[in-house]
Write a structure and sequence with these properties.
Length: 223
């Protein structure tokens, strides 16, 4: 069977382009923001919180990449890694909340005059270039509240994304189901092609017999 026809039997899922996922883009922002935040507002040495926060931010970002890559063959592995990513982002959010509480800062809520503007900015901006100009200008309160907001948005967006992946698994199955379906589809189509060739061959044989008979009739008439 030609290669172009075999393409429809591929069982590997198409790899998600994680760089286009908004929640991934926001985790890139969170990682870079956390690195700068820790440099500006923590002691240079001796504070384990710095390593924990930076590692949590990095884990959130990296596990999305690994999960998207592994999702080509394993829905379970993708789901596990995305859960790890969400867990890391939640841990990071808690670290920022701890910082706000321990430093007697204000956690911006609906009543805060800047809350809605911050929410809108974080909702509509995903790229690191949108945030980087503020990293050295924002206060620790501004930066921590923006980070908490981004963490909440990433968690919500990932939850929606995972629900979509679960629905795909229900309708399409895992790799074993897709392999079986691909193999069955190939065999079914191959059987149909062979049957069509047999039928065509039978028609050609009948036509040949007819032509031979006509030829024999013509020969007898010429004698």
């Amino acid at each position: 069977m030609p290669d172009d026809k075999l393409n429809k039997y591929h069982y590997l899922r198409k790899q998600a382009n994680w760089e286009n996922l908004w929640f991934y883009q926001k985790t890139v922002v969170l990682y870079q923001m956390t690195v700068v935040f820790c440099r500006r507002f923590f002691k240079p040495y001796g504070d384990r919180t710095v390593d924990q926060m930076v590692q949590a931010a990095r884990s959130g970002k990296q596990n999305i990449v690994e999960g998207s890559a592994d999702g080509v063959t394993s829905t379970a592995m993708e789901s596990n890694l995305l859960n790890v990513a969400r867990g890391s982002i939640r841990e990071l959010k808690e670290d920022y909340l701890d910082y706000i509480r321990s430093h007697k800062l204000i956690l911006w809520t609906n009543e805060h005059s800047r809350y809605r503007a911050m929410q809108e900015f974080c909702r509509t901006h995903n790229r690191i270039d949108d945030y980087e100009p503020f990293f050295e200008r924002w206060s620790d309160e501004e930066m921590a509240n923006a980070a908490v907001t981004l963490c909440c948005m990433v968690d919500t967006m990932m939850q929606t994304y995972q629900k979509k992946k679960e629905d795909e698994f229900v309708t399409e199955g895992g790799i074993k189901e897709r392999m079986t379906a691909a193999r069955k589809g190939y065999r079914t189509d191959l059987h149909k092609e062979l049957e069509a060739l047999r039928n065509e061959n039978a028609v050609l044989r009948d036509r040949i017999d007819q032509l031979l008979q006509e030829n024999a009739t013509l020969r007898s008439q010429l004698k």
